[in-house]
Amino acid sequence: MSRARADEEEYWHSSKFRAFTFDDEDDELSQLKESKRAVNSLRDIVDDDDDDLERVSWSGEPVGSISWSIKETASSSTSSLEGRDSSLQKGSSSYAAFPKQVSSYSLSSLFKGRNKLPSCQSLSDALSDTGVKNYAPELRRPKAEYKDYSSDWSPKDTVRRMQKGKACSLERFRSLQDKLVLLDEAVAGHDGNVITAVLIFLKRTLRREILFRELEVRQVALCHLIHFLKETGEQKLLLDLLRFLDRTEEVALSQYREHLNIQDVEKRREFLKGCIGLPFSAEDTSHIQDHYTLLERQIIIEANDRHLETSGQSEIFRKYPRKASILNMPLVTTLFYSCFYHYTEAEIPDKQYVLTALAARAKLRAWDDVDALFTTKNWLGYTKKKAPIGFHRVVEILQRNNAPVQVLQEYVRLVEDVETRLNLATKYKCHDVVIETYRDLKDRIQLTAYKCKVERGSAEEEKINSILNNMQIRWKN
Asked: What is the predicted pLDDT for the residue at 185?
């Protein structure tokens, strides 16, 4: 412990400077003995009027001298973080690591015109040094930069600056005439962002009546404002603007669009009921009525099916549980849902119904229902299969739902176009249909060639041999 204390005392009392003595009056550059205590209390013992008493940095430079300030400026401008770390490391290292050089400047000599040493530079020499010019801080900004903060810009110059992405204050445009000129310049610049920024400024500083009146004769700016109000959701201002422009259908459509933000089903139904009386066109009014009717039926179906599903009374809900609610679903989805879970209740004989019902019943592999879907009776009581969507589409839908070959062959035979029928029969391997079609065409060559595509010893091969050996058929080739 005593040895460590002795080392510490030796560290703090050792210095490369000689102690100050009053006997050394001739030596004007006598150096102070440096210690931590002397550095910390330097401002208390140094008299500003004493020319011989100087503050000395760790590198030996007088604190506050020109060379010291130049080096400090250079080190801070190149690497401030590295300089901080290195200064901390230097403070804890030994004195032997510091360069042993005597200060070349004296603060008193610079300001009083005296050179203490032959190597001491003058103030003009120090300022004319090239290194000083590189690291000397700029005291004032160029006057051109102060112009950026000036508000004395014309509308055209302001628009140009905004196009370049520079900050501009629009508050100096106070009169209505200046604001309209600014808007016209923004429109002439064909920059949507600038036009929108100016419109936001006008919306904030002008009354609605004046803004709407001026935008009515400026269609480009008007379209930008309408689009901006739609994007930001300012519904009230948008409706006021459309009413001012006498766009009644757009007003009705904007009000109708608000139903998308209503989550409660009952509130949405009541809102749609109120939209029926809005000034839509005749066609749009019928669509709104259909939407209201669809949602009303979905609410009834959803309540009934939820009860059946939770109680377990229906077999189809136990076998195929519902994956989602039917509420707010499109018409086609609702039709598919109804055909899937409530097939016997559906009574919509049109193409869309046939497509949806076919997909739903084929997925359940209810082939009798599929057959009944296309079976019709004439006034004499004869049955006939008829498909409003075409039997070629029926075959495709059945194949996507993995229908057996016997079911596919039945509907492939009903395709009227011979080429389409052969292509579908070949594609889905309906061999009987291909064989019967070539027989009806009396094409012996094609039938013989197709014989190579069926399995040897199969029923299809025997059928082809039987047809080829039939002497009653008059072949075309």
From this structure: 92
